[in-house]
Amino acid sequence: MENRGLDPVPDHERTGRVRALFPTWVTANMTVLLLTVGAGLTVFNGLNLWQVLAVAVTAPALSFGLVGLVSVAGKRGGAPGMALSRAVFGQRGNLFPGALLWVVRWGWETVNAVTGSYAVLAVLDLLFGIRSTHSLILVTLTAFVAASFLVSGLGIRALRVCSRVSVWLFGSTSLLVLVHLTGSTPWRTVLDRPPGPAAMMIAGIGTLVAGGLSWVPSAPDFARYLPHSASGRAMVGAAVGGALVTVLPMVMMGAVMAVSAPHLAVTKDPVAFIGELLPRWISVPYLLTAVVGMTLINAMSMYSAGFTAQTLGFSVPRAWAVGVNATISLLLGGTLMMVATSFIDTFLSFLTLLGVTFSAWIGVFGVDLLRGRTYDSAALMDTTPGSGYWYTAGFSRPATGAWGAALVTGLLFTDVEWFSGPLAATWTGRNGLGWAATIIVSAGVYAALPRPADGTGGAPVRF
After folding, report:
1. What percent of the chain shows pLDDT beyond 70?
2. Distance CA 393, CA 90 (A)
3. 240-261, pLDDT tens digit by residue?
4. What does the buried/exposed string (b/e) look like for 354-391 if buried means 16 or more CB atoms within 10 Å of the residue's CB?
């Protein structure tokens, strides 16, 4: 079990390798929700196969390019992302983005837990004809969350081992699906589909990018055991490559499946169509692999959320902090599975808000990193006025100001089920690019303002 919390990893313990990041980021995308998104690109956005291909390549390259960039902060500072964020926002200022990102993670973990539970229920139905009931929903959801908590509670070594195994499982079962689709798909119908509007491609990219952005603040958490000599470019390559290996085939498979059964893109159960479109000997192992993947996704998210809780002042061991998020996702997941009438609408609305929330932090933190930020271990852990990252009353005014302005800007362009900003009808809002506007504002405002001097005297470094 990993016992280290927020405290930076000392140099003698930094024995990690950049290649270990590749299976980590492959695993971070092993969710059947990508099949749902791929189906939506065909059914709702009206895109043809080549346009879906362009979306499935562009989106992970953008979002996980940022994941790789921010992971460089982990090897520089050796601490989790939200602990390093104290150097940017100040010891008190960091509480605002930290609290918001922590709450948003509740939603992300809830969506993953619900999707994983649906997959378990689908397997039970396929193998044994067991139909879903409220009691069974709660049992499967509890088992899924408990498994996620166990892996995340054990820590980074368990996550690495499980990620390596899951990559091989995912690759094997995905190959089976691809072979089946190659022989059973009406390719003439698929290839003859007319192209959709360019605006719908942009909107599709925005939807996929929004999901990937949720991993950016967590990136340093999985890179902090790397030595200072690790290549930053290799870290970016591992993040982008790991995402492409997963996102590209799953989105494409979802788009191809939806051509034969378009109504399945709007089902309340986001994985039900797998059992209907694939033979049992493929669908059962594929769904079981999906359960493993989504369990690990939730475990990775809980792992990072535990650190975030600690930065907010929860003076408990890391594993206990992880348990708080596990309990919350269990409660929210049960509510969503038994109350929500349209899972896909809820999911897409959540993705939109998720992108805006994370983007406000990403713009500020990314610019600060590119400015050559170094991190002082003692100052990161010192939350008193004597800290080198205290700035003015505990706040870095340029960073918190840019973050707040960007967050408001992003919400102005947001249009979801339960909220519509005054600029949602503009081109940016209609195409789901509120997250892009948020990053531009946060990065631009922070870059235009002078960075306040901290009390550590650290010299800037080059990326």
Report:
1. 92
2. 9
3. 999 999 999 999 988 888 877 6
4. bbbbbbbbbbbbbbbbeeebebbbebbebbeeebbbbb
Q: Report DSSP state, residue 12.
A: G
DSSP state of 266: G
On whether the CB atoms of residues 458 and 378 are closer than 8 A, the answer is no
3-state SS record for 424-460 = CCCHHHHCCCHHHHHHHHHHHHHHHCCCCCCCCCCCC
Residue 164, number of CB atoms within 10 A of its CB: 15
pLDDT tens digit sequence for 136-146: 888 888 898 89
DSSP-derived secondary structure letter, 2: -
Strand partners, 420: 415
Q: Which amino acid is at 172?
A: S
- Give me the residue label for tokens 């094997």: 172
Q: What is the pLDDT of residue 74?
A: 95
Neighbours of 97 (CB within 10 A): 26
User: CA 123 to CA 273: how far, in whole Å?
Assistant: 12
Residue 202's identity, in one-letter code, is I
The whole-model pTM stands at: 0.89
Would you list the DSSP string of 267-290? -SSTTHHHHHHS-HHHHHHHHHHH
